[in-house]
Every structure is written in structure tokens, then in C-alpha cells.
Amino acid sequence: MGVQERQQKEKMILDAAIRLFTEKGFAATTMDDVAKSAKISKGLTYFYFKNKEDLYLAMTKKAFDELKDVFREVYKNKARTGLDMITELANNYVKFARGSRIYYQAVLDFLGTVQLYNDEHLRQKINPLILQSEHFQKLLEMHHDCAKIGAQMVALGTKDGSIRAELNPEVAFYTVWAMLIGFEKLMGPVSYEPKDTKIQLETWKPGFTKLLQDMLKGTFQAVKVQPVQTSLF
């Protein structure tokens, strides 16, 4: 079997798995389902992917590749300031998260798995089939790639004056990334009615962007509260 044919069959199987993971969820999907959807024998499916976990990690790698493309697309236009890049990236990141749900969830799942992997005691909680997948090691090697591009955007901003010069690019970008993950996760709760808090998604989104920009530009200022004389009655 030639390389091109092998790659073609791998793609057919992976595409089928992604469709099923999206429609049915990971737990409800079986390798039989994948083989039938891909119109490939079950034996051949196992030849290319050891198990369902291996397939999910292959999809996760594809998800990181797609997310990296989002970063690259923003960074390639060097005519803008670093702050403009980060602002555009924030908007495109949320679009990716909302528009590619299965990919974005796979990214978050892997980041959570890495947190367990870094602790020898917690590592035992990871499914052994995940650790045995060849895609797992590849993901360990590449999962910082997006942040590296993001840090380059921050570094560019510190040079062109749009971002505070004293910021560490890596620390600053990982802080931005943490904010974006939190923002995306809270979009649902903020949009849900009824709620006691006086906040709407339409006003929160521009407010979040402004706060992010102010943090990077350094326009935060400590305000000294002046004592006010007043009467309770």
C-alpha cells in the first residue's frame, strides 16, 4: 500500500470518527460505528488506529493544528501593532471555540490531561490507552506552539510601544489565554436568563476586550478613594 493510499484511508477513518464524536459523543461512539461510517472493515480500522482513544487523540492533534492556523493567520500580517494582533486573535479564538466545538473541547481535554500527567500521583488517573497512543507524545511536543506565536505577538507589541515594555511575553500571553478560556466558558452562563446579575453578553464582550487591552497597554491606575462626609439619615 502506497503512502498516499494510507493517508487517504487514515483521513477517511478520522473524518468518520470526528462526525460521530460530534453527533453522538465520545462515550457513545464505538470502533464498529467508525468502521461502518468510513465504509472500511473493522480490522483495517484497528490497523490504522489502535483504539477509540487513539482516534480521539488523532482528532486532538488535528484540533491543535487548526487552532495554530488561527494564530498564524493573525500573526502573518506584520503591518499591525502587537496589541492589534492580540485583539484580533481574541476575537478569532472565541469564533474558533464557538464554531469548532468538538475541536475546542479536545484542546481543553488535552490541557487538562497534561495537568494530570505532570503529577506522578495524578498520572495514574489517566487512561493507559491514552498514554500508549503515539499521538499523545506528539501532542506533548506541540501543545505550546500556539502560545509561542501568541508570545511573539506580545513581544512585537512591547517593541512597537502598543504593549507595556516591562511585560514578559510568555507570562503575558498565557494570562491572556487563561482569560480567553474563562471568557468562552462563561458566555453561556452570562447569556442565560433569568439571572440576578446585571450583565448582558452584548455589553460584556466589548467590556472584556477593553479590559484586556487596558491590561496590556498599562492604563490601569490605582484610584485613591477620598473620604466623603455624609449622613445616614
From TrEMBL:
Protein name, per record: Transcriptional regulator, TetR family
Pfam families to which the protein is assigned, alphabetical: TetR_N
InterPro entries, sorted: Homeodomain-like_sf, HTH-type_TetR-like_transc_reg, HTH_TetR
Species in which this protein is naturally found: Mariniradius saccharolyticus AK6
Superkingdom, taxonomy of origin: Bacteria
Record feature DNA-binding region, as residue ranges: 30-49
Keywords: DNA-binding, Transcription, Transcription regulation
A single MF term (Gene Ontology): transcription cis-regulatory region binding
Keyword Transport among UniProt keywords: no
Residue span(s) of domain HTH tetR-type: 7-67
